[in-house]
Design goal:
The protein is mainly α. The protein has helices spanning 2-27, 37-41, 78-87, 93-105, 111-119, 126-136, 142-148, 157-182, 197-205, 213-224, 233-243, 248-259, 267-282, 288-300, 318-330, 335-354, 368-374, 383-404, 417-425, and strands at residues 55-58, 62-65, 68-69. It has a three-stranded antiparallel β-sheet. The radius of gyration is 22 Å and the shape is globular. The structure holds nitromethyldethia coenzyme A and D-malate (MLT).
């Protein structure tokens, strides 16, 4: 199948290149955005300076993948969403099957990766283990081999595609190994190629799942986190590294390091930790007043409420809505999930009253942990690895397309404080 996706891309690329060339040539000097000083000091927030066709994030719509709002994709498999991210089309049944078979063929993890992981202390953070495991496989890179062999720039997307698919095919085994080793869950569970990517992952994690609901959650989880345009910290890191013509191993590892920060992907771990701390501090299932007081105290002491706020969104993140729906359907009476609902009722008001956060609404990280916790994955230090496994789909689609478009080295201009002072005085 991957041949089919690859064929599709091969057909699309000349047209995409021509379109970009014509746009840049015809309108090269047209002003697309203006930069104000606040943005320079404010983390470049909102500056339109990147092209990303895999997905877009509207401040009042949330994630849209190739024109399809994420809430219309929640019953899809992550493999289908990957095809959509990369080619702009959902696969038909045969294409999907071929893609899944292709992933299975690529699934063998080099044995030295287990040695590398086994050499790490067991209490190494799972995100370090994931990033290290991916870096350790760099010697497998087809991109590096072919670049060293002189492959021309216009063909570099092909080995990028090969590397990306190899990583997608292997990363679930690696992540499951990390989970089982870090938290004393016993030996590795071998992959089952008869299952889809997410169900296979759920099985390898070894979480008890008699009725298949955890596998269903994994499918949803891996769809919802798959991409969020290219300005977010991890995808941007991935693009920058890949733009130097580093391969996918370097690029993903670097991107995962960016994802591992508490303002980004680690917020899912922090959010669950916050729920448990609140429950422990209060000593019983908290009342609304107790939740309000606890959260207000957090804000008063200068802390952030993890899972709330966003650099782009100004609405409830539809990915949160999808998790909330899943929770209401499957675990409505769960105590931790109830706290997620209570916080949703209470925190936006507190944030609005505080008047600092531009977006007082929940993001993707506010509910996901409570669902995992319910199904027995209580080790919240692992949650960002799940985010990373999913986001590797988006990283892959983005850097394959970037090489297909022969995107240049990313190198914006910095200025000194002295230069800024001169500008504002003139
Ligand atoms: N709780 C308390 N304060 C907040 C929150 C929050 N949830 N969100 C924003 N603020 C504060 C922020 O710290 C800043 O304060 P100060 O002026 O003292 O530095 C002020 O509000 C303005 O920040 P914004 O411009 O609204 O947000 P920004 O675009 O800078 O940052 C986040 C976006 C997501 C980093 C921020 O909302 C945040 O820290 N949220 C909590 C962490 C989180 O959930 N991150 C996950 C994001 C999604 N993901 O998975 O990556
Ligand atoms: C993401 O999914 O990457 C986060 O919501 C962060 C972002 O978009 O900035």
């Amino acid at each position: 199948m991957s041949k089919t996706i690859k064929n599709k891309l091969t057909e699309q690329i000349p047209g995409l290149r021509e379109e970009a060339r014509t746009l840049a040539k015809t309108y090269g000097s047209k002003v697309m955005d203006q930069v104000v000083l606040e943005q320079i000091y404010g983390g470049m927030r909102g500056i339109k300076s990147l092209v990303c066709d895999t997905s877009s994030v509207g401040l009042d719509t949330g994630l849209i993948i190739r024109g399809i709002p994420i809430l219309e994709l929640t019953d899809r498999l992550p493999e289908e969403v990957f095809c959509l991210l990369l080619t702009g089309e959902l696969p038909d049944e045969a294409t999907l099957k071929e893609f899944q078979d292709d992933l299975n063929k690529r699934a063998e993890v080099p044995s030295y990766v287990w040695d590398v992981l086994n050499a790490l202390p067991k209490d190494t953070h799972p995100m370090i283990a994931l990033s290290t495991a991916i870096m350790s496989m760099e010697k497998e890179s087809e991109f590096r081999k072919q670049y060293d062999g002189g492959l021309s720039k216009d063909k570099l997307w092909e080995p990028m595609y090969e590397d990306s698919l190899n990583i997608i095919a292997r990363v679930t085994q690696i992540a499951a190994f990390i989970y089982r080793r870090s938290f004393g869950k016993g030996d590795m569970i071998p992959p089952d190629p008869s299952l889809d990517w997410a169900a296979n992952f759920a099985k390898m994690l070894g979480v008890k799942d008699e009725d298949g609901t955890f596998a269903k959650l994994m499918r949803l989880y891996l769809v919802l986190h798959s991409d969020h345009e290219s300005g977010n910290a991890s995808a941007f890191t991935c693009q920058v590294v890949s733009s130097t013509l580093s391969d996918a191993y370097y690029s993903f590892s670097a991107a995962l390091n960016a994802l591992a920060g508490p303002l980004h992907g680690l917020a899912n771990q922090e959010c669950l930790r916050f729920l448990l701390n609140m429950r422990n501090a209060i000593g019983h299932q908290p009342s609304d007043d107790e939740v309000r007081e606890y959260c207000q105290n957090l804000l008063d002491t200068g802390k952030v409420v993890s899972g709330y706020g966003h650099a782009v969104l100004r609405i409830t993140d539809p990915r949160f809505t999808a998790f909330l729906k899943f929770g209401k359907e499957h675990i409505a009476d769960d105590e931790t999930f109830r706290m997620v609902e209570q916080i949703f009722e209470i925190v936006p008001d507190l944030l609005m009253k505080q008047g600092k956060a531009k977006d007082p609404w929940p993001n993707v990280d506010a509910a996901s942990g409570s669902l995992l916790y319910h199904y027995g994955m209580t080790e919240y230090q692992f949650y960002t690895v799940l985010f990373g496994v999913s986001r590797i789909l988006g990283f892959s689609a983005q850097i394959i397309l970037a090489r297909a478009m022969q995107s240049p080295l990313i190198r914006p201009k910095s200025v000194t404080t002295g230069w800024i002072k001169k500008q504002v005085q003139s």
